[in-house]
Give the backbone structure.
Amino acid sequence: MSASIDAAPRRDAGLARQHLIDPEICIRCNTCEATCPIGAVTHDERNYVVRFDVCNACNACISPCPTGAIDHWRQVLQTKPYTLEEQLAWDKLPVQAELDVGAGAELPLEVAAATAQATAGQGGTVSAPASAEVPRTNLYSLKNPVIAKVTGNFRLTAEDATSDIRHIVLDFSAAAMPVLEGQTIGIVTPGVDEHGRPHYVRLYSVASPRDGERPGYNNLSLTVKRVTEDHAGQPVRGVCSNYLCDLRNGEEVRVVGPYGASFLMPNHLGASLLMVCTGTGSAPMRAMTERRRRLKSGNEGGQLMLFFGARSPGELPYFGPLTQLPRDFTDHNLAFSRVPGQPRHYVQDLIRARAPDVARLLRDEESYVYICGLKGMEAGVDAAFGEVCAAHGLSWSELLPRLRESGRYHVETY
Amino acid sequence: MSIDYNEKIPNNVDLAGDKTLQRALEHWQPEFLNWWGDMGPEGSGAFDVYLRTAVSVEPGGWANFGHVKMPDYRWGIFLNPAVPDRKIAFGAHKGEPVWQEVPGEYRSNLRRIIVTQGDTEPASVEQQRHLGLTCPSLYDLRNLFQVNVEEGRHLWAMVYLLHRYFGRDGREEAEALLERRSGDADNPRILGAFNERTPDWLSFFMFTYFTDRDGKFQLAALAESAFDPLARTTKFMHTEEAHHMFVGESGVARIIQRTCEVMAQNKTDDPGRVRSLGVIDLPTMQRYINFHSSVTLDLFGSDVSSNAATFYTTGLKGRFEEGRIADDHVLKDQSYPVFEPAGGALTTREAPALNALNERLRDDFVKDSVAGVGRWNKIIQKAGIDFQLTVPHKAFHRQIGPLAGLKVSPDGRVVSDAEWSAGVGRWLPTSEDRAFVASLMGRVVAPGQFVNWIAPPSAGINKQPVDFEYVRFN
């Protein structure tokens, strides 16, 4: 059986992603026009340009381009792309226009409920960091989802690990899906439940940075754990997670969102991130870390400190790549709770062990705290922060509200 | 011992199934590697270089990036996919099916075309072999090496045609391609521009901008050939040539950028002062443009040429973008303007279009090179500097054809010997210019560092950061 879906075409949701060539960088070598398998590129004596109605964003032209001029995209209204005549007259690319996408889609009740529950741990509404990029939310509704294609599905956990956690890459082709690190998207599982009703939308944090799982590609990644038991350990088959984990390359998925306007990273030089996560709560941390890694040569400054808990190294998503990051880039602290012959370590233990450095970050006005993972970690982490503060002349009960007010403390737990 | 030919020599010409070709290449390949060792980039054999290797002609296949040692580079043999039922698009055989083998009557002309094209490829590697010692950055060093290995691959492409389609003659010509030497008094390369030195990086960037652009137009004309294997080979080479022109255009652009920055910071447009600040003054850039543009124009051959007419009529070599031209593609009774020196003045006359094909290709080239110079001027304008670079008149400083030896200024006036002598120091690079440029050459190899006279590029190669370790010296 195929999981492909009969749904509305990709480009009917108001926004589209238009492929453009930067006339300032392009050397008019004709490689793109020669390479394009469907004749979407054309030129006159001045510029090389892309036909909006022909280009299907297959990316065949991207790597052959010797200059990188080919790899430019703008969000445009579906009904008002830049015309060929406009493109042919350009000396440089236009800046991204602010778009009026009209009435946004309605926020599904279940999304609102899930968000409220996930952020309960931060003790109320928290604004985004002041310098955060303005997020786009709610572009695609249940009535009008966008179709993504699976272009990767890899198991992240060891073969002998008890949990099956997967890294799933979704490509949005020519449809706009602008997401920021920390935002979530909703997945619509096809079919109906035992009562004949459509399945609930499930939210997943995006695990890739804003410029795509692969830079410049219109794709994103999710970190999905196959649910085989409930919180109480009773066997249960998670409908959406099993659907996602079983997807094969090329299959299509209905996506809604994006959601989230608070759990976002600061966008200014010198900001530090203090990240605490367990299991698939690592998804937004990966996105933020990767964002910073790609900016590394830009001397963005600031520090990344990560506390990451799992049962064992084999169960820790992204264990390999994470441990290869230079220590002067991320200060990562891994806690394992089920390694045979070793005492159980939890993230809060490591926070205590690194108390002086944690206290220094909490004190720093330029640092931002992110917590994501199982609900069960909240109390332990809260207590650990309390102890760290007490030992270093800070009051957690006074500090926490200030962190919240200034958009520096974000929690998403489930 | 069996060799996996597809692994060793990536190809899409069924090398594994062609015993004769295997034998020929097995003999030639060690000689090629010897030549590369002797005449390729100096002292570079042990470097790991972040190179693009073509492993197939599909979009995903011909741009595979990774660190490789250049002697281990997988020089492959690639033909663009065949166009089914392709017909000859021009000349006396127009409308007939293209040839998959060489027609006997055109054998020697085709061989000559292939040898002439093939000879330029190793020649430019020889011309550039010392440049690595004075690279302005790791990024530029990598680009130089990429150009070099691809010129090597283009030699392979021509040698494949010689081996596969020209029997013993072809094998001998393939060997001779490795025996001639750029600038050698006794056994020089065939074309003049390929015996000039490429002494510094400004010359290198100018060469890749102008002279590799000649390659683009020659390859585009050959990609129209009725001899299908030649058409398909050159079509793919044409795709790779783009990188070389990118190196040239962006290299010169970055030098201009840096010069303009320094001029603006120091509020000066005095060339002497600009030089004292360690960057290349714009009038010197103009003289280099004049030199490289004019030397390259000569590569297109004589303005009126019966050879060019023969090559066209017999279907061996077409025009640039033949398919886009709306005419009879036979050029019967058509004419084309060419220059004619008459009594000390430069006049034009109408020559039979068939005989003026070199001139026509030269004009296509000029149009293309003028556009890039316009893009350089935008950098100068943006910096608020009142200076314009220009491409010199087509008749300036020509050594081949009826204009050879005629004294013409860059703006197209025929001038007296006295005026020429007085002006030449402003029009062409002087020995002082060359000495000054040479004095700036220094080796910068720390990742992300650039020598003073060139700006960093706006982006790295294959989306790598600019400070990526593009070359590891081991």
